[in-house]
Amino acid sequence: MIEVKRNLTPKALQCGPVLGCPAVYELTDGSLLVVGRSVSRSELPEDVRSKIADDESPVIISKELLGGCVD
């Protein structure tokens, strides 16, 4: 079972108990869990689609969710 250490979602983007809120969680093993809008592989360009493994899922998140880490 996956264990969550803490919620890293910026406070301004946390929306409480309602559904449909993107989020970032730190797991106890140090990796991150990202929650976003799912995208079907067929919507992606081939150069991106070809890099997604069978056990991976593409998701879309806002730049704000990454806390300003993306220009």
Keywords:
71 residues, mainly beta, three-stranded antiparallel β-sheet, two-stranded antiparallel ribbon, 1 helix, 6% helix, globular
Structure report:
The strands form two sheets. A three-stranded antiparallel β-sheet has the order 1-2-3, with no helix packed on it. A two-stranded antiparallel sheet has the order 4-5. It has one helix spanning 46-49, and strands at residues 4-7, 23-27, 32-35, 37-38, 59-60. It contains one helix and five strands. The mean pLDDT is 89. The protein has one domain. Helices cover 6% and strands 24% of the residues. The longest helix is centred in the C-terminal third of the chain and has 4 residues, at 46-49. The chain is globular, with a radius of gyration of 14 Å. It is mainly β and 71 residues long. A hairpin with a 4-residue loop joins strand 2 (23-27) and strand 3.
Order of helices and strands: EEEEHE
Number of helices: 1
Neighbour order of strands in the largest sheet: 1-2-3
Number of domains: 1
Shape: globular
Helix content: under 10%
How many E-type strands?
5
Outline the biggest β-sheet.
Answer: 3 strands, antiparallel
